[in-house]
Predict the structure.
Amino acid sequence: MKDYILNPPAYIEQQKLSWEEYVSQGLDAREAKDNSQWALGDLALGVKKDYGEDAIGKYATEISVVKSSLETYRKVAKTFQKSIRLDFSRLSFSHFQLCVYQDDPEMWLKLAHNNNWTCEQLALEIKKTKPIKENDWLRIYDLWNFLKPDVRLGIAHPGQIPGQIVANV
């Protein structure tokens, strides 16, 4: 990250980049973000082991990271050993985070990896497997997207209103 601060990408200097260069730099930035989340999770595991559960809050304050975020990073790092991370290195940290509380997290990672699912697609697929409880229809749309209609609501056409709005009115 220090390298990024000292040597910002070309787009900051107003140079025109090709589409491929933008994609390449975007993937590099996402990988750096993922790597920092994994590193923070692994470090938090060590802090808890060496200094106890109570030290996590102090550690979060010292490194200027929200405690709940650090706890999440720790949980994900604890659940997925480095060998699993390498097997699914094409997936983002967010994919792993979505899978961490599932009954069979590796199965979901394999599905996401094999089908090239985005985090949004993975979240929708996981949600489809959850049973609908009484009165759940009141909360059926809890993933809001104002940029495009909900993919579960049919064929897109001009003037189509995002389904979450209609369903919750």
